[in-house]
Amino acid sequence: MEKRRQSFYEKLKKIVLTAVFTALAYICLFITPFPKIAGFLTLDLKDAVITLGAMFLGPISAIVISLIVSLVEMVSISGTGFWGFLMNFLGSAVFGAVAGLIYKYRKTLVGGILGLGCGAAAMVAVMIFSNLFITPIYLGQPRSAVIDLMPVLLTFNVMKALLNAAVVLFLYKPVSNALKAAKLIDRRTDERLIIDVKTLIVMACALAIAVGAVLILLFVI
To answer: What value does the mean pLDDT of the chain take?
Structure first.
């Protein structure tokens, strides 16, 4: 009976956290203060929230959160219809799921950085494919026109991936400490919820990468 009750509470906590990360990812669509790049490329931080969720809850959560957020975005604020939904879902889900999967089996700083790097690379690859085969459909333009824009699209996707990965690195420890203090995720009995010097260095590097990515997007493209 006790094991069944414990299992129920664990499932309930996971559902609650999934809902929280889903809501935060959607809110990011409204509060990101970046103008559109090249007139139609939208820069937001929802992928960072989705990937954070995946690192705490597992890679499947990235797919679930990405699907829900992309669907709600499509019917509420997006003007790109089904094809925009598909591209948003693919990019977010691949980024979060790959990062979460690697981190699930290697829960160290190196594992987290490796997961984020692989997730970012996978997202860029998926978005290049999507830009070549999906973007011409919803823009109503020939593929040759999209190919002409490929340097801009590639730079945008790389910088967006770097920005979101850097935000995950910057926020991971504070969010982890908060969730552990609230007993929403597991905590070792001997673990101290502090931000040490190594973590501060990682956060500083992540912030520098994020600022650099934004500057490149705003002033180079």
So the answer is: 89
